[in-house]
């Protein structure tokens, strides 16, 4: 499910102060918009009854991601802005097709939950594997400078909470991606503990691009 990533704020503060997105990329945030929208649809009574928490958390996440992407649109040049607009249009078209197919050809919440649940699992796995780029950098540079501890901790806690939620009652569509999310967060914490002492906090790691750092800080859905 969506988590409130406090590690995101410095990125957008920097963009606002510089009045430019510089080398930061909006890809994770644009992708999370679709991810949150899919989970909101999954939680609707016509798809998966008794999922109010899924709707409220991801609905809030959707609004926050829209704000983030709007900031990117405001401070991007036209080529980047055009790519964002095209991506959002494709996402909207995809969501519209999924909603149409689900409500038109699938009857009953069991069939609808299965289709949307599988799609949500796919999107969530993509979200949870996004930090792999940064984790690879941590290992190669023996530095956790660009992998914030509290964000990794929030990642782990988010996965654990939703994993437990999925057990009461059993919901495999939430359970599977959050099991992977818990594992991802745990690996990040282990890396942090392993390379904390070798991190040179005042040294500029020029080979780590802002776009890679940003991936680890993206807000994620279950």
From TrEMBL:
Q: Keywords of this protein's UniProt record, alphabetized? A: Membrane, Repeat, Sugar transport, Transmembrane, Transmembrane helix, Transport
Q: Where are the transmembrane segments?
A: 53-75, 84-108, 114-134, 146-168, 174-195
A GO BP annotation: protein homooligomerization
Q: Which family does it belong to?
A: Belongs to the SWEET sugar transporter family.
Name its cellular compartments. Endomembrane system
Topology in the lipid bilayer is annotated as: Multi-pass membrane protein
Q: Which organism's genome codes for this protein?
A: Ilex paraguariensis (yerba mate)
Q: What is the protein named?
A: Bidirectional sugar transporter SWEET
Q: Name one GO cellular component term.
A: endomembrane system
Classification via Pfam families: MtN3_slv
Carries keyword Transport? Answer: yes
InterPro entries, per this entry?
SWEET (IPR047664), SWEET_rpt (IPR004316)
């Amino acid at each position: 499910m969506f988590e409130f990533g406090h590690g995101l704020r410095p990125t957008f503060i920097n963009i606002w102060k510089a009045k430019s997105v510089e080398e930061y990329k909006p890809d994770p945030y644009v992708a999370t918009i679709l991810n949150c929208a899919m989970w909101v649809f999954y939680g609707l009574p016509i798809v998966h009854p008794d999922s109010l928490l899924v709707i409220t958390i991801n609905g809030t996440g959707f609004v926050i991601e829209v704000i983030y992407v709007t900031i990117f649109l405001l401070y991007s040049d036209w080529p980047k802005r055009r790519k964002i607009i095209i991506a959002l249009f494709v996402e909207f078209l995809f969501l519209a097709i999924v909603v149409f197919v689900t409500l038109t050809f699938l009857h009953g919440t069991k069939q609808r939950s299965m289709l949307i649940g599988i799609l949500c699992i796919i999107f969530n796995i993509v979200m949870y594997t996004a930090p792999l780029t940064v984790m690879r950098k941590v290992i190669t540079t023996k530095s956790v400078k660009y992998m914030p501890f509290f964000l990794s901790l929030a990642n782990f806690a988010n996965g654990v909470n939703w994993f437990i939620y999925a057990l009461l009652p059993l919901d495999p569509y939430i359970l599977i991606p959050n099991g992977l999310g818990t594992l991802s967060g745990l690996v990040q914490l282990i890396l942090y503990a392993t390379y904390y002492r070798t991190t040179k906090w005042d040294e500029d790691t020029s080979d780590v691009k802002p776009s890679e750092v940003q991936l680890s800080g993206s807000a994620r859905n279950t």
